[in-house]
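Give me structure tokens for this 99-residue protein.
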Amino acid sequence: MNFQNHEKVMRIRLFGDYSSEGFSAWLVGEAESLDLCGWARPRADGSLDALFAGGQGSVEAMVELLKDSAAPIRSPRVVERLRRGDEPIWAGFHYLPTV
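Here you go.
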């Protein structure tokens, strides 16, 4: 699968307390309900990297869910990151192990 198959691809970094046990399931469930592909990966510094790919409205809706505290996150802050262009992408949405 490649990026050309998607209307919009956005990479973000999420800051905030997302350590609740249900967060990963919530994130994957919301991404799948919006028909997004991509991944999320917690980082050792406490932030989370994520890449969302799909329809423009779906990607933007996912980012708004994260920003608006609809997610089980305390004090969320979402920062859009530049894509390197070599990020992996698979069908579906995946929650990856911490790096």
